Amino acid sequence: MNWRNLFASDSNMSPADVKIFMAEHNPEEYQLLDVRQPKEYEKEHLPGAKLIPVKELADRLDELDSTKPTFVY
C-alpha cells in the first residue's frame, strides 16, 4: 500500500459521514489513524486511534491493515 492512497481525493468523507460510519460499524471493522505529532496525540485523540506521525507513515505502512477502511486525521 502506498501512503498516498490513504489521501486519495475520491475516498474523502465528511466528518459527519465518518461519524455515521463509525456508529454503524464495529471498531474492529475500520482504522483510525492520527498523523499528528506525539504531543498533540497525548493531549487529545480519538479513542482507538493509532498514532503514526505523517513523517513516519511511509516507513510504517506495514502497521496498517490495507483491507480495512482507514480514517486519517
Provide structural commentary.
The chain is an alpha/beta fold. It has a single domain (3-72), classed as 3-Layer(aba) Sandwich (Oxidized Rhodanese, domain 1). The chain is 22% helix and 12% strand. It has two helices and three strands. The chain has a three-stranded parallel β-sheet with strand order 2-1-3, with no helix packed on it. The chain starts with 14 loop residues before the first helix and ends with a strand. 5% of the residues are buried. The model has no long low-confidence stretch (mean pLDDT 89).
SSE diagram, text form:
Layout: H1 15-24, E1 31-34, H2 38-43, E2 50-51, E3 70-72
Parallel strand pairs: 1-2, 1-3
State the main characteristics.
73 residues; 3 strands; single chain; 2 helices; alpha/beta; three-stranded parallel beta sheet
Radius of gyration equals 12 Å
CATH topology descriptor: Oxidized Rhodanese, domain 1
Biggest pleated-sheet summary:
3 strands, parallel
Mean pLDDT, to the nearest integer, reads 89
Helix content: 10-25%
Number of domains: 1
For the record, what is the CATH homologous superfamily label?
Answer: Rhodanese-like domain
Strand order of the largest sheet: 2-1-3
